[in-house]
Design goal:
The structure is a single chain. Helix content is about 25%, strand content about 45%. The chain is built from two helices and twelve strands. Strands 3, 4, 5, 6, 8, 9, 10 and 12 form an eight-stranded antiparallel sheet that branches. The chain has a four-stranded antiparallel sheet with strand order 7-2-1-11, with no helix packed on it. Strand 8 and strand 9 form a beta hairpin. It has two domains: about 50 residues; about 160 residues, Immunoglobulin-like (Sandwich), CATH 2.60.40. The protein is an alpha+beta fold. The N and C termini lie far apart (about 85 Å).
Length: about 210
């Protein structure tokens, strides 16, 4: 009579668990390999294209008002025009946020003005215009003194700044958000010999941009 070997239910259960564990491991390694390949492809494309930060230049800055009332409350009105250029051949730029303001000797002299978000295609340029205002903005007590010294010297130097968030676009892929900062220096004729009307700076000098 032949011997009959019967496996216990516990043994079958263990065998089934081993098979399930093996399948889970295969699925895990498959998905890991797939996502790693996609990530590696994105990194390779990124380094091949090497996105270059956008170029900003100052086109025009007009000061219509810069008056201190009382001891240290400033009223200001400045019209600003910047030129933004995307130097990349294969990378587009989404500007999600842009805020611009003016400062003088380290003091902010206008409130921030927000510009509309926009997309900038490859090698494209855009003119960005804003009116910067302040009404009874507190400034340091030395503001009038510094302004008087610059008027005597015949030259006024302002920093026109922009900051915000941008994203890179390569084909259909869009990156996460990156913060950028722009600093433009405007030099204006200021003094007894200055012409009537607004103080104006017109120049095509590059601004300093950091990301």
């Amino acid at each position: 009579m032949s011997q009959i070997h019967a496996k216990s239910p516990q043994h079958c259960a263990k065998k089934k668990l081993v098979n399930i564990s093996h399948i889970q491991k295969k699925l895990f390694f498959t998905f890991t390999t797939f996502f790693s390949s996609i990530l590696l492809l994105i990194i390779i494309v990124w380094f091949i294209l090497r996105p270059t930060k956008p170029d900003f230049s100052l086109k025009e800055a007009d000061i219509y008002q810069l008056v201190v009332s009382g001891t240290h409350l400033l009223n200001s009105s400045i019209q600003l025009t910047l030129l933004s250029r995307n130097p990349n051949q294969k990378v587009g730029i989404y500007y999600d946020e842009i805020h611009v303001y003016a400062s003088y000797k380290g003091q902010q002299i206008t409130l921030e003005t927000s510009l509309q978000p926009f997309y900038q295609d490859h090698r494209d340029t855009n003119l960005l215009s804003a009116v910067l205002l302040a009404n009874a903005l507190p400034v340091a007590p030395s503001f009038n003194y510094e302004l008087g010294r610059d008027q005597t010297a015949g030259r006024l130097v302002l920093n026109l700044k922009a900051n915000g968030l941008l994203r890179w676009k390569v084909g259909t892929w869009v990156s996460g958000k990156y913060r950028f900062n722009v600093n433009c220096v405007a030099v204006l004729v200021f003094g007894p010999s200055a012409p009537s009307g607004p103080l104006t700076a017109r120049q095509g000098a590059q601004c300093h941009t950091t990301i």
